[in-house]
Each structure stands twice: as structure tokens, then as C-alpha cells.
Write a structure and sequence with these properties.
The chain is of the alpha+beta class and 240 residues long. It folds into 2 domains: 39-111 and 199-232, no CATH class; 117-195. It has 9 helices and 8 strands. The protein has helices spanning 11-57, 61-71, 75-88, 113-122, 164-167, 172-176, 178-195, 213-224, 226-232; strands at residues 98-101, 107-110, 126-133, 137-138, 141-142, 144-151, 158-163, 201-202. A 3-stranded antiparallel beta sheet has the order 1-2-8. It has a 3-stranded antiparallel beta sheet with strand order 3-6-7. The chain has a two-stranded antiparallel sheet with strand order 4-5. The longest helix has 47 residues, at 11-57.
């Protein structure tokens, strides 16, 4: 077998290899600097939101900072929560905004039933609400329910009909209070159409590989929803 010395390797090959290493180094450095810059911009935006939110919602800064400390959520999710809170005048400390990790491992920000009720009563054009339900039932539960919202600036009211078969899930609360759940779901969809309310999905990933989806949700929910809303209705998780 012939041995090959580095001296026998053509110079252009060595130059190409060195050039590739330098190129990879520059790319890595550029990516690192971009990530650092994005992180600084994100932190700046988050700090601004933390400073502005208390005035917008009429809460004490100390209360908000304590809530943030206890919530244990990624910065991107917190930013989405505070942005949504400011935009819709909802207080996350009272459970008017909530979040969870969905099946795609993305964090979703959503408005529980208390938040929707607050939103509806905030609207200056809101003039009333009415419900109707199907005379036909399934195991004693109406097969559909309608919600109608009246606005002073519209000639016709907004009416939405939702079907029990399409909404029901295996969650215990649907087994315990199916009619209430159907009513809440119908109310949420009607309010969404009547007032154009939309909540963004936060694409923040799970913060640590050592934290599983189930363990993080357990920690987050136990701290996030406090006994106050858990006792009140384990049903504050009424998603739109």
C-alpha cells in the first residue's frame, strides 16, 4: 500500500477545504449574531409590554410581575399573552386569557368564557344577547343551540347555530354539564363573528427537552389557573 503525505495533496484541495471551513465559520457567526439580535429585540419588546400592560389594564406592576414569575411560560408565549391582553383589554391575572400546548407542540393563546363575557360587555355597540335551542334532543340534550347578538350599528342581529354532535368531547366537563358547554361554545362563536375577535397561535416550542408536554401542562395549569378559577368552574378552558 502506497502511503500518502500531506505534501502530496494538491494545494488547491487544501485551499478548497480551508475556504469551506471559513465559509462555514462565517455562516455560523452570522447565524449566531442574527439570533442574538432577534433575542435582544424580543426582550426589548417584552419589557415594553410588561411596562405598558399595568396602565392599560389598571393593575399594579407588582401584581403583574408576580404573576409572570409564577406562570412559568416561554417568553414568546408571554409576549403573545400580553399583546392580546392589551389589544382586547383582558386581564390574564383574572383568567380572562389562557394558554395551552396543543397536539403539534405549539403554544396556543385563547380566551376562556370569562374573557368572552368581558369582551362582549366592552363593546359600545352591544345591545343584547339571546339564546334559542332545538326542541329535538339527544339523550335529553338539545341537538343544536343558537346565540343571537344585537348591535346598535347593524340592521340585523348576528345569529350563530352550533351543533352538540360537532362540539362535544370526552372531557369530563362535557359529561357533567353538556348544556352549559354547548351554550358557552355557541356564545363564543357568535361573539367572534359579531365583533371580529381573533386570538393568535403562538409558535413557541417547548422550552426544554427535559420537560415533557404533560409535565409542563400540569405545572402551568396548576399555577396559572389558581384555585380561584379551578374551583369556580373547571370549565374556564372553553376554547373558541
Amino acid at each position: 500500500m502506497n502511503k500518502c503525505s500531506i505534501l502530496d495533496i494538491p494545494e488547491n484541495i487544501l485551499d478548497d477545504d480551508q475556504s469551506n471551513r471559513q465559509s462555514r465559520s462565517k455562516t455560523a457567526k452570522s447565524k449566531y449574531l442574527t439570533n442574538q439580535r432577534n433575542q435582544l429585540e424580543s426582550d426589548f419588546t417584552l419589557n415594553a409590554l410588561v411596562n405598558e400592560t399595568p396602565n392599560t389594564l389598571g393593575i399594579a406592576m407588582e401584581e403583574l410581575r408576580h404573576w409572570i414569575k409564577e406562570a412559568i411560560i416561554p417568553k414568546d408565549v408571554l409576549k403573545s399573552i400580553l399583546t392580546t391582553a392589551k389589544h382586547y383589554q383582558l386581564n390574564p391575572l383574572l383568567g380572562q386569557i389562557d394558554w395551552e400546548l396543543n397536539e403539534e407542540n405549539h403554544w396556543e393563546i385563547y380566551i376562556p368564557i370569562d374573557g368572552w363575557i368581558s369582551l362582549i360587555h366592552q363593546q359600545p355597540t352591544f345591545q343584547g344577547i339571546a339564546f334559542d335551542q332545538s326542541p329535538e334532543t339527544e339523550d335529553g340534550i338539545p341537538i343544536w343551540m343558537e346565540c343571537t347578538i344585537y348591535r346598535s350599528d347593524l340592521t340585523h342581529p348576528i345569529t350563530v347555530r352550533e351543533y352538540y354532535a360537532e362540539l362535544k368531547t370526552d372531557h369530563p366537563v362535557w359529561q357533567q354539564m353538556p348544556r352549559r358547554m354547548l351554550r358557552h361554545k355557541t356564545l363564543q362563536q357568535c361573539a367572534r363573528l359579531a365583533f371580529g375577535i381573533a386570538v393568535p397561535e403562538s409558535k413557541a416550542p417547548i422550552p426544554s427537552k427535559n420537560i415533557t408536554k404533560s409535565s409542563f401542562i400540569k405545572t402551568s395549569v396548576s399555577i396559572n389557573h389558581k384555585a380561584l378559577l379551578k374551583e369556580k368552574l373547571n370549565m374556564n378552558k372553553f376554547r373558541a
